[in-house]
């Protein structure tokens, strides 16, 4: 039987330099490496930004999203606001609360606090 192993989570972006700046400066992720794609490692998980020139790429409206956990959601929202990043209203669910935001290419990012 074929053995599959996890590789990465990625988002398509149209302008790699600007996308890298967003993930570094706004979300505080550290760039791990860059060649054709940009790589970040978030708690051991490889997250990549993949440049594309296609005008139509799969959107972020499916079920997969980059979700970043925080200990204090209000502090995270205030920090994002200081960086001129708009977030959704806080959504409460049984096991936590979250807001959503979008990167410069419209990819959805979730900021989550466990209950």
Structure description:
By secondary structure, the chain is of the alpha/beta class. It has a single domain (9-54, 64-114), classed as 2,3-Dihydroxybiphenyl 1,2-Dioxygenase, domain 1 (Roll). It has helices at residues 16-26, 73-82; strands at 9-13, 31-34, 38-42, 45-51, 66-69, 91-93, 96-102, 108-114. The radius of gyration is 15 Å and the shape is globular.
Oligomeric organization of the protein chains: single chain
Low-confidence stretches: none
* CATH superfamily caption: 2,3-Dihydroxybiphenyl 1,2-Dioxygenase, domain 1
Order of helices and strands: EHEEEEHEEE
Number of domains: 1
Mean pLDDT comes to 92
Strand order of the largest sheet: 1-4-3-2
Mind telling me the C-alpha Rg?
A: 15 Å
CATH class: Alpha Beta
Enumerate how many helices there are, as a single number: 2
Described by the principal axes of the CA atoms, the overall outline is globular
- Give the amount of beta strand, in percent: 35-45%
| N- and C-termini, Cα separation | 40 Å
* CATH architecture field: Roll
Main sheet makeup: 4 strands, mixed
- Write down the CATH topology: 2,3-Dihydroxybiphenyl 1,2-Dioxygenase, domain 1
The number of E-state strands comes to 8
The helix fraction, in percent, is 10-25%
């Amino acid at each position: 039987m074929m053995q599959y192993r996890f590789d990465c989570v990625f988002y398509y972006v149209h302008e790699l330099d600007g996308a890298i700046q967003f993930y570094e400066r706004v979300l505080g992720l550290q760039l791990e490496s860059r060649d054709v794609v940009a790589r970040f490692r978030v708690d051991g998980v490889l997250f990549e930004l993949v440049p594309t020139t296609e005008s139509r790429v799969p959107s972020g409206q499916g079920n997969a999203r980059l979700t970043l956990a925080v200990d204090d959601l209000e502090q995270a929202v205030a920090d994002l606001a200081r960086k001129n990043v708009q977030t959704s209203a806080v959504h409460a669910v049984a096991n936590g609360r979250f807001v959503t935001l979008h990167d410069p290419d419209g990819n959805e990012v979730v900021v989550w606090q466990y209950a």
